[in-house]
Specification:
The chain has 238 residues and is mainly alpha-helical. The chain has nine helices and no strands. Helix 5 packs parallel to helix 8. The chain starts with 14 loop residues before the first helix and ends in a 16-residue tail after the last helix.
Length: 238
C-alpha cells in the first residue's frame, strides 16, 4: 500500500489544518447567517399571522434554502416558535429597553420607556406592530412551553416598568402613595391600545398621540412639585 511521505503529508497544525478550520468556520458562519435570516423572517410573519403561521417548509421556500437545513436549526415547529419568541425579545430589548436604561432613573426612565415603546410600535419594527401583542393574544389560553416563554417576556417588561416607577417614588419624583402596580397596568394598557387601534384603523398618528396624552396626564397627577417632567417637552415629530 502506497503511503504519503513526510513531505507530502500536511504538517499537523500547518496549512492543511488551517484550511480545514477555515472551511469549518465558513460553514458555521453560513449556518449562523441562515439561522438569523430564518428568525428575522419568522418574527415578521408571526407579528402579522401569529406563531401558528410559521412552518419550516414555508420559511425554507421564502428564503430559498433547503427545508432540511431549516430543520437542522430548529427540529420542530415548537422549537421554531420558541426561537422566534427569543428573537422577538432581543429585538424588543434593542429598540425599547437599551436606550431607556441609559436615561436617568425615575420618571425620566419611565417616560423614555414609553417613548421608545411607542416608536417601536409606530415605526413598525415588525410589520404587524408589536410582536408580543399579536402572539400573546394567540397563546394566552393555550398552556405549554410557548405560552410559558411569552409569560416570562411579559413579566420582564412589566417588572422593568415597575422598577422604574418604584425608583421614581423612592427618589421623591412620584407621590409616596403611588400604587405602582396600578400605574404599570395603566401605562401598559395605554400602549397596547395605541398599538391595536393603530393597526385596526391604519392610523400612525392619533392612537399614539392619545396614548402620549394619557400617560402624560397620569404621570402629571402623580409627580411631585420638584420632579422632572420630560413629557412637557415637544412631542416627537411624525
Amino acid at each position: 500500500m502506497t503511503d504519503l511521505s513526510s513531505e507530502q503529508r500536511p504538517p499537523r497544525g500547518g496549512s492543511g489544518g488551517a484550511h480545514m478550520t477555515s472551511r469549518t468556520d465558513g460553514r458555521v458562519q453560513r449556518g449562523d447567517q441562515t439561522r438569523r435570516a430564518v428568525l428575522r423572517r419568522a418574527v415578521d410573519i408571526a407579528s402579522v399571522e401569529g406563531l401558528e403561521g410559521l412552518s419550516l417548509g414555508r420559511l425554507a421556500k421564502e428564503l430559498s434554502v433547503s427545508k432540511s437545513g431549516v430543520f437542522a436549526h430548529f427540529g420542530s415547529k415548537e422549537e421554531l416558535q420558541l426561537a422566534a419568541v427569543r428573537a422577538g425579545r432581543r429585538i424588543f430589548a434593542d429598540h425599547v429597553v437599551s436606550g431607556a436604561l441609559e436615561a436617568r432613573p425615575g420618571v425620566c426612565r419611565l417616560w423614555r420607556l414609553f417613548e421608545d415603546w411607542s416608536a417601536y410600535s409606530r415605526g413598525r419594527v415588525f410589520p404587524g406592530g408589536c410582536f408580543f401583542y399579536t402572539v400573546n393574544a394567540e397563546f394566552e389560553s393555550r398552556p405549554g412551553r410557548v405560552r410559558d416563554s411569552l409569560v416570562r417576556a411579559r413579566r420582564e417588561w412589566r417588572d422593568l416598568l415597575a422598577r422604574s416607577a418604584a425608583d421614581a417614588v423612592q427618589l421623591g419624583e412620584l407621590a409616596a402613595d403611588t400604587d405602582v402596580d396600578l400605574l404599570v397596568f395603566e401605562l401598559a394598557s395605554f400602549l397596547e391600545a395605541a398599538n391595536s387601534d393603530s393597526l385596526l384603523e391604519d392610523d400612525l398618528e392619533r392612537p399614539y398621540a392619545l396614548a402620549r396624552a394619557a400617560v402624560a396626564s397620569r404621570l402629571s397627577a402623580l409627580a411631585t412639585a420638584d420632579a422632572p417632567r420630560p413629557w412637557e417637552a415637544r412631542a416627537p415629530d411624525a
